[in-house]
Every structure is written in structure tokens, then in C-alpha cells.
Known about the structure:
Number of strands: 11
Order of helices and strands: EEEHEHEHEHEEEEHHHEH
Distance between the termini: 35 Å
Amino acid sequence: MKTLVIIPSRLSATRLPGKPLLKINGVSIISHVYKRAEKANIGEVIVAAEDKEIVDDVKTNGGNAILTSKKPKTGTDRVYEALKILDRNDIDLIMNIQGDEPEIDITDIRQLYNNMKNNKKVRIGTLAAKISNIQMYQNQNVVKVKTKESFDQNPFPLVENFFRNIKKNENIFHHIGIYCYEVETLKNFVSFTQSKNELDNNLEQLRALDNNININIAKANSSPIGIDTREDYLAIKKIIEYK
């Protein structure tokens, strides 16, 4: 099963502009993510960016990158535009890895890939981890997911819903924004207009649920630190540089 890993990226992040090119140990965040994705060894890795500066940086650091337009509204839409630009017809699965998690666990990437490969009827797969502290339930920046079954009952259960905040409950986990799609499902996803639910919550995955596209969840070993703010950046910078 041939897989292509695409990392969507842009400089105009609302909360931390220029985020992909911030340096840790002299290497940009986006290039750190690229190297992690490459080490997972599940397929060719490409950064899809709307900014030439990101493309140039990735290439300078030995990676592959292509320039997309500024039209895509979400990372998934950018991933699909990149696939069209590449004009690849030999791909079965597309893995979308967020460009702001430089400590993403390589085994978790592989875990999601293996679940998709071994469950041919699954249309979209993603990851979730155990919630480590109670404050995460009400933290708007931490996306939560509720599964229809526990991981003890099913190692790759269906998603019931995603939330920005929710009270502690059964089968609630920290959602990790990596997605693996069948190519046809990715085409279907981007053909739908953004749903009200998606726009109200700023969660693109709700577009799939709102259009009856099921999503399955694989359990991750840990929750990576996503870089949304200057404080997040300084915290992860300290962790990586200490290593």
C-alpha cells in the first residue's frame, strides 16, 4: 500500500505568526517535523506550503517541499491541492501531519499507518492519547475526542464527536491532529463546503462527521506539545535543546 506523507504549512498563523520558521537548535520547526515524518519510514514526505520562505527552508535542510496557493481554508484542503499539483495516481493513502509538533512520536505515526493498512474499510484514521491532567478538559486549545467504544473493546474505534471543552467522562481522549485518508475519501472531504459546525468550532474534522464520513481513532503513546503560542514554543525549545 503506497503512502504519501504531506505536511501542510503556512506563515500566517493567527496566534503565532511565522511559527514554522522559528528555530530550535538552529533548525526550523517545520524541518524538525519533516525529519520526524521521514524517520517514521512509511512513505515519501513532502511539505505543502503557501509561502516560498517555508519551501526554501525545507529544501535548504534537505527536504522536499512544494508551493501551493493561498486558497485552501484548512490543512486538509491544502493537502489535497498538493496532491493535485503532484499529479500522483499511484498513491493509496495520504498521511497529513501537522507542522507544529516537532516532538511527534514516530511510533505513533507508524501505529496509525498500520491500523489504516490493516483495516481496509476505514476511510479516515487519526490519533488520540490519554488526558494527562484535568485542566485539559476545559482548555480550548486542547481538542478532545469521544470514542464510541473504549480501546479495550476495540483498538481502532469510531469517533462519536470532537470538542473544544467538555466535562470529564468515559472514552474522552486528547485528539492529536494527524490524519490518514484513503485518496477517494480525501477527494470527497474537500468537495464539501465547510460546515457550520466546523466553522463554529474551528475544527476541520467536523466536516467529515457532518457529511457522514466515519473517522476511526488509534491510541497514541503520548500527547505531543503543539506550538500554538510563544509560551508553547519556548517550552518545547527548552525540552528539545536539553536533549
